[in-house]
Structures are given as structure tokens and as C-alpha cells.
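This part of the workshop introduces the protein records we will be handling. Getting from the letters to the C-alpha cells is the skill we practise here. The record below serves as our worked example for the rest of this section.

…
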Amino acid sequence: MHYALNLRTFFYSHYFYLGLRFAAGLVGVTLFTLQFASLETAMTVCIGALCTALMDMPSPLRHKFNEMSASVLLCSAVTLLISLCAPLHWLLMTMLVAISFLACMMIVYGKKSMPLQLATLFIMTMSMEHAMTASQAFIHTGLFTLGALAYLAYAMGISWLLRHRIKQQVLAEALFELAAYIDIKADFYDTRYNLSEQFNKLVRHQSLLADRQQAARDLILRSHLNRKDAIVVQTHVCMLDLYELILSTHTDYAQLRLHLADSPVLKTLHDLAYKAARDIESVAYDVTRDKPSYPEISYDTELAAVETELAVLQQRISEGKPAQEALAVLRAQRNKIRAIIQMIGELHAASQKVADSTPFWVDADMGPFLSQQKYELRMILSHLRLGSPIFRFSLRVAMAITAGLAVAAWLPYAAHSYWIVLTIVIILKPSFSMTKQRRSDRIVGTVIGCVITALIIQYLNYPAAILGFLILATVATPTFIYLRYRYAAIAVSVMILLQMHLIAPGNHDLIVERLVDTFVGAAVATAFSFVLANWEYQSLPRLVNEVLSVSLRYMQASADLLQGKGSDDFAYRIERKRLMDSLAALNSALVRMLDEPASKQRAVEDINLFIVQNYLLVAHVAALRAIVRRHVKEIPQQALNAMLEDSHAQVSDILQRAISKGKGQPTEPPNGARQAPVRHVSAASNAGHDDNTSWSGWPLVQRRVRLLQADAAKIVVHSAAILRDIK
């Protein structure tokens, strides 16, 4: 369950704060306007505030101002244009289609622009029902703009006052998702769970975790001007370091299960991971409450049990290599878990006081870690071609709205065509899977919302009760719109139907008409989801090649870091972030493809394995880094560098040939990849050791390097299979 759906954390989440801010702004602007003007004027001002409120999301203050200002300008222009065209039906229909197309083209600017697209299409549909003279259109637009500017000023003021609070809430969300990530890893020790399915679940959650961590970076790393901000910054950095340690815990779970299935140690390891997840949640819980976090969980019993079991196993296990290998894996896991527990202690400490200096970014350019906000016309112009998925989506929406308007004109009752158009706009999304999910949520939510509204009107038809439900629905709509859209659909149906009941209480067919309009809009959106469709498999070659390219750069950065060639790990962190982002993009495409018709699915198993193997590269590098840190005094740097240099050359060669094959350049078959063994550094170095296996930690380094090379070789096989299946 999502952390924000738990009552213990819901009222401290930024989702609930958004709902309160949204409702307070809308109700406040409307009530203030009613003191000086009529209800009709107040509703126009309210709609202006509503369109701007759709852009009110957690963002850096400068970005928020730019985004909300763009909404004010664009929505005001659309309001004026549609109002002026309304008297001429043919011109109005033409402008509706044109604006729909242009609004959908705005998604070239990324997912942050999608609320702006929705706001534009929303005000377009709300303005199409009112025929006005030119003077009335300008007055109407002026009132709309006034409401939009009022909410802009209100939202910026509240966001400035709560800027530190919002950072805490977004950081806490990333910590909660990290705890959920550990919960998934804990189940690797439980033999009831299939390893392959569990690993797929882990990789899926990785995409969500990467998104939450990026949201935290964007807010926290852009500015840290005071003592409170410094606490959030150091907690955030400690969280990222903890995340890398967690990555390093990936090991040979199959071997542990095979040789230690009858041992209680697997249950103990599971309990340790579960406790670690709850410990991280306690930090997140305290962060949302703006107070320092202190350790309350003890791991002593489980750690003592692991030590006892290790001693028992050492006595019982025979000299057979597989069993000895399992014991070595268990010892390594014990060491990593101890390091994670220590880092969680540092996470608690980071929330308590300001450190003397911030880690790794002093005098560094943080741009590569942050999302960039660029709105350039050439980005739209570059997608004005039939091969562009965004262009095809824009055409699809324009055609669907045209069809929706035509159907509305044929309905036997006095249909409100704007409701059909709005349903199409909300359901029809760039991908088939998103459209499918949104259609289900919209229909179910509308049906439930209509039933709730009918019950309220039938049994609680009192002004005070209706006003109370109206305010509750107004809070719930933005709260759940990014959390659970189905709940938001219920709330928005109740909100709109109650508003219309207050305005026109005598319309007894209102709820039935809304249901019919919703089903009509959903049917039109579903039909057009197949028109000029952009199937996910078409983007797979680009995404796969991007992952390979970023993996190559990541391996170079990790090799430099492990060999001590840099003064810090800044470059490594950048490339690790880019690799995780590219894997998250590929994984999201895979998940969406699984919701598409079976005939449009390609290379599902190979894509999944490709993602897994790249994820394992990150896990192996994180493990190598932890081993080198732990045994830094025992392993000579020269010997280590010699091994890492050989390993890096081989892995880079493998990845480079995979990239060349993806681009259609001549290359050797994947199975022909050179599998040169790692050279024996004792013979090639001047470290002065006759037996390099006597170095503490050296066998662990060798084993990780072998795994790294093996998984890199598998990447070539799976990438070639993906491209072959797509073609």
C-alpha cells in the first residue's frame, strides 16, 4: 500500500497539503468574490483559479512561478479565443480541434507539462457552452484572468512560507519508498517467493524509487540557504549513500536457499531487512513532523543469531566447494547488513543537527542531478512529422474530440457536449496502457460518484450538508489525482454534480445525463486509442541503445572511482543516476507494453532480462565499492588496479560491441565475445605477495569481478534478441 494511503502518514503527506491548499484557495477566492459580485461572476473567477490550481504541484519556487504563469497566460488566451468564436458554430468547432491538437503537442516538454495541457483543454471545454458578444467575451476573460492571478499570488505565497515543509515531505516520500524497496529485498530470503518474480518486482519498484529520488533532488539540491535546509540536504545525501549500500546487498540468493534452506539464518536475515525498513520509515515519519529522529529499533538479537548460526554452520558444513561458497556469501551479507545498520544510524544523526560541511557538491555544478525546464518552440517544430509519437497522439485527440462533438449533436436529450469532450480529454493518453487504466478509473469513479451524489441529494438535501460534502470533495480531488486517480474521479464527480445541483436544483435527470455522457466519452476515447496508435515496441530500440550507452559511461566512471583516479565520487554519482533513469524509462515502457494487445508485444522476456542484467551491473559495482572500502588496508592498490583495469577493458569491449550491433554496425556475434579471464595480478604487480588469495577481501573482489563480466556478456545476448524480435 502506498505510504500516503495509511492514515498514520496521510495527513502529513504533501498530497494532503496539496488538497488543503487547493481547496482553501478556490473556496477563498470564490467567497471573497461573492462579497462584491454575483454568483455567475464568482463562478467565472473560480474557474480561473481552478485552471491555475491544476499547476500547483511541489516544485522549486522559480519553476512553480514559470509553470503557473504559463497556465495563466495560455488559459486566458484560450478563454478569449473560444468565447469570441462561440457565436459562429463552424468557427468554434474548428478552433476546438486546433486548440486540442496544439495543447497535446505541449507534452514534448515532458510530464511536467501534462497538467498545463489538461488545464488548457479543461478551460476550452468549459468555455464552449457560452455564446457571448465580443465585449462580453473580453469581460469574461478579464474575470477569468483575475481569478487565475489571485490563485497564482496565493499559491506562491503559501509555497514560499512552506518551502522547507514541502522539502521535508518530498524527502520523506523518497524515504518511505526506499523502505518499501527493502521490504521487497527482504522477501528474497523467504523460500515461499519465486526468485525471478521477486526480482522483477524489485526492478519495477526501482522505477518508482528513481522518480521519487529525482523529485527530492529537484527541490532539495537547488537551494539550501539556512540551517533547516542544511538538515534536509544532509539527510538526503545520507539516504543516497544508504541506497548504494542496499544495492550492494544483491547476492547469490539461489545458493543461500539451496544450502541454507533448513537453517533459521534465512529467517533471521529476512527479519533484519524488515527491521531496517521500519527503521527507515521511522526517520521518514519524523521528517514529516519536522523533528529529529532517534533510533528506536534494536538489531542485537538478530545479529547475535546470525553470528551463532555462522559458527554452527562452520562446524557442520563439509569441505565441498558449493557449501563453502554459500557460507562465504552468508558472511558477506552479514558484513553488508552491519554496514546498512550503521548507515541508518547516520541517517538518524543527519536529521538531528547540521553537519560542519555538506558532502560531495561543494563548488560543484548540480545541473546534471536536476530536472531541466526548457520551453523552446523548436522542440514542438521538430515533432511536426507523422513519425513522431507526440504528433500522432495530438492528431488522435483532435479526431476523437471531433467525433465526440458529432455524437453529442446526435444524442436525443439536451447533452452537454463539454462533458463528453472533457471525458475524452481525461481518458485519452499518449500510450494505450495509460488510456486503458484511465478509462477504467474514470468510469468506475464516475459511477460511484453519481451514486454518492444521488444518496446525498435524496437523504441529506440540506444546504449545510451539501456545502460540507462539496468542500470535502474539493479537498479530495487534488489530493488523490496523483495518488489514486479513481478516488479523484469519485471526488470530482461529487464536486461537479453538487455544484450543478446548487445552481439548478430542479434538474432531476442531471445524474443520468452525466453517466450517459461519461460512457459516450469513454467509448469514443477507446475507439480512437487504436487510431494512429504508438505501440511501445516501436520505441524499444532507442531505449535499449540509450541504456547501453549510459552503461558504458557508468562503467568508465565506476572504474575511475574504484581505482582512485578522482578526488571524489561526483562523476560516478551522475552516471549512476543517468543509468537508473534510463533503466526506469525502459522498464516503464515494458510495463506499458504488457497492457497492450498481445499482438503488439515484443521480446518481453528478453527486455526483462536485459533490465535485470544492467541492474546487476550497478549492484556488482556497489558491492565492489563496499568491499574495497572495508578492506582498503589489506588489498594493495596496485594489484587491485591491475585487476580492475583488465575487467573494465573487457566489460567496455562487450558493451561497445552491443552498442555497435544496436546501431546496425558490423560486429561479432554475442556468443563470440571475448571472455578473457581476469589476469592474475600477483604475477603482474609489484605488490610483494606470493599468494594474492591471502589478502583479506581478495576472493570477494575476484568473485564480484567474475560476476560483473558474466552479466555484461549476457547484456549483449539479450539486447541482440530484443532488436531481432522487434525487426
Residues 669-694 have pLDDT under 50 and may be disordered. The first helix runs from residue 7 to 10.
